[in-house]
Amino acid sequence: MFFSVLAPFSIGLSFFLFGLYAMRSGFQNLAGKKMEQWMYKVTRTPAHSFWMGLITTFILQSSSAVTVLTIGLTNAGMIPFTQTVGIILGTNLGTTITTELVALKLESFAVPMLLVGAALWLMPRKSIRCIGLVVAGFGLIFLGIDTMKVMAAPLEQSDTFRSLFLESRHSIWIGLVTGIIFTALIHSGTATTVITMGLMSNQILTMETALAIVLGANIGTCFTAVIASIGTNTASKQVAWCHTLFNVAGALIFLPFLSQLALVSAFLTDNVSMQIAHSQTIFNLICSLVALPFTAQIAAFIQWLIPDKKR
């Protein structure tokens, strides 16, 4: 049973993460160095910063990558910390776009997208080749999802696995910690969410446990940023910890209301994968929009918490 679970999981996750990387490379090559220039110019107001964080997160397919990029720009003195809070709020919402697309269950298009992407990659024009990378990346993502679904049947029959998740029904904290640790290990909150969707589709998890894992995944994405901030200036550390504390606070506030969040998402759709995607979008949308008018106060609090010793 171990091999029947580990093999499809490892292969599927590899396809999925490589697909994300291919999409990121394609988008990055299309945008070039303009992305850094955009982030430098279009961060004058919290609203501008928010949209920049949302768009760049979708382009880079990783909130961690955008936060690390923001840390780099802050460390170089190109963006002051106070202008990065809006970017951080936007990154959380930007991660939900890919999840919503994945929840549409487009696995049947995996092979055609791979073939189209490969054909476009053979074209001489650079922009078309980059588009090919993006299309092939999506194909790999869907292929990875389809492969990981194979592990659901043996897991469903496992008494050990079932008892573990039966315990998590009594304590959503287990789901939260699972989401944090797993996302920190694989460096992809989207992958954690997709795996959770697969388990939910086979009725291995309860919706409350699944949503707790997704909230944990939001926190786990901050691990990369915290590591990237080691050895940088104070402003860069403030960016990393602002992202971390915001996600922790949002998860802790929403944790008692997972049943209500599940009811709202169930009202919107009968599809359990879409319910998880919608719940994640609702969670991040509410957290970001509520915090957006208070970016100055959030920045002041983080600066008080992590003061610049030079000053």
From TrEMBL:
NCBIfam families: Na_Pi_symport, NaPi_cotrn_rel
Transmembrane regions: 6-27, 48-73, 102-123, 130-152, 172-199, 211-232, 244-269, 281-306
Protein name as it appears in the record: Na/Pi-cotransporter
Principal location: membrane
Gene Ontology CC: one annotated term: plasma membrane
Signal peptide positions (record): none
GO function terms (MF aspect): sodium:phosphate symporter activity
Domain of life: Bacteria
GO biological process, one term: sodium-dependent phosphate transport
Cross-referenced Pfam families: Na_Pi_cotrans
